[in-house]
Amino acid sequence: MCNSNNSRPLPLVQWFSPDGDFLDYGSPLVISNITRNLAGIYTCVADQFTATMNSSVEIIVHFPCDELKSTDIIIVNMSSTAVGSTATYQCRDGPTDVYTTQCTNTGEWDPHPYTLDCNTDPGVSSGKGGVGLPAILGVAITLLLVVVLCTTTVVVVVFVLRRRTSKPLTHSF
């Protein structure tokens, strides 16, 4: 609402769209059948012949995301397209990591740092900006094996050295 009740004479009130197009005279501005395209900053201009005042208001339209597009490689499983819902996707041609993204209140899907590459061997995915679970598990198992082998080697070396340096007990009578 663009309010100027206390001024005399009453000003001419005009509303302009976010694109600067004239919308209507008077106050309040009524927008019917609102859609996502109507979001933006609307400006009210009150002209009293001797002075001009303007004020702006931002209209934010919350709406669900459009359904994600499915390609030949990616399957998109969605339980809902409501604000805050999630979408999970993975490769068709074999087991891969599962990635999740979330719908924002502006109807956009949060940017996701991963790109699945299903043209490689089944079970292998490449992530732009991240490392998949199979790669992490592979590194962890390799490190564990190295630690176990090193520990075993140290124990064996210590045991052998102790046997070599121990002198037999001799008794003299």
From TrEMBL:
Gene3D superfamilies: Immunoglobulins (2.60.40.10)
Recorded superkingdom: Eukaryota
Keywords annotated in UniProt: Disulfide bond, Membrane, Sushi, Transmembrane, Transmembrane helix
Domain Sushi span(s) in chain numbering: 63-120
Keyword Transmembrane attributed: yes
Residue intervals of the Ig-like domain: 1-60
Cystine crosslinks: 91-118
Stored InterPro entries: Ig-like_dom, Ig-like_dom_sf, Ig-like_fold, Sushi/SCR/CCP_sf, Sushi_SCR_CCP_dom
Transmembrane segment boundaries: 135-161
Protein name: Ig-like domain-containing protein
Lineage: Eukaryota, Metazoa, Porifera, Demospongiae, Heteroscleromorpha
